[in-house]
Amino acid sequence: MLDDLGVVSLCQDGIIGKWTRTNQNHWQWAKLLDAGKEDSTCFAYQRDRIAVAFPRLGVKVWIWIKGTWQPQRSILRQNVTSIKFVEDGEALIGGTSDGVLWYCQVPNGTLRAYAFLKSKVYHLDVNASGTHAIVSQSGGRAHLVGIQQMDHKGKIEQVYVMNAESGVVAFGAKFANCCRMVLFGSIDSNLLVWDRVKGGVVCGLDHGDSEHIQAVASFDRGANAYIVTGTKRGLLSWWKPPPLE
Q: I want to staple 59 with a disulfide (CB 3.0 to 4.6 A). Which of 16, 75, 91, 99 is the partner?
């Protein structure tokens, strides 16, 4: 949620809810809406907008209007595997199981293909200024793609490639350290930190023997920048980003 005020989640039964902290520092859950019983693949949330992707139905969109979540026109693109709001919620970008990166204004835009990649898109992350997306694909690859400026829309500016033999990819690539770095993949319990521009590995964040890194997150606010990681055995770690040369 905006300003880290809570967490929004999509449950297997189609219920979208939010977790927020009370004044007593307890977590409290509240239902936002019921997206339906059809199996969903992913969702996106931004302030007063929710989008949920369904393999057969496309992407359903709701907007908070006059105290209720009101359904809007759906985006009729099947096999969507990842979506993200951009342009302050005025548009969505999405990826599909056949490797298409697309863009569509909401609620009444026209769907446009930005890039045609070679494998399934399973995760998207967008930088703070909304100019670029990192598109994570099956096969241990992530692409840095322009999504805003006219001459850069759909342009692949960098590729981050994992070693197929020793590398492990259990999470989607994420921007970090004011979008100067990319977190993507691990080798021997080391989270790989990449230089966003140069495309090379800066360092590995060592989690110790036999730790399987399952989740990563980054936090940037002013001069403060942090990386948070979670492992299969329940180890939660907090890191300062390494310096770039």
A: 75
